[in-house]
Amino acid sequence: MKASFAFPALSLAALALTVGLPLHRVGAASPAAKTIQISAKRFSFDPGEVTLKKGEPVTLVLHSEDVPHGLRVRELALDLKAGKGGTVQASVTPDKTGDFVGHCSSFCGSGHGSMTLTFHVVP
Questions:
Q1: How far is CA 54 from CA 38, 81, 105, 123, in A?
Q2: Is the residue at 21 inside a domain?
């Protein structure tokens, strides 16, 4: 009697189709999120403006160059805090379009109130 190896492969393919899995994606890795580096120093963010696409994940990496800094954008549910010389990151997937202004959320001196970063979220 010959061993048949076709049956398990066909069974797996039938199972994948039954539960709605596309065969070409089974076991495939999802694409890596785009990474955006943001530097914070008294009293500015660099870059000062960032463009994101609605529905596309992105990893934001905030690095504080001098004193503790934060970045809060309520509309994007983002709240990062980096200690002096520290780095922190968060993943964000914007779910709406528009311009959203982030503010430094850790008091960093006399120019703290004007320390902003604008996120442009496009379709």
A1: 19, 24, 24, 5
A2: no
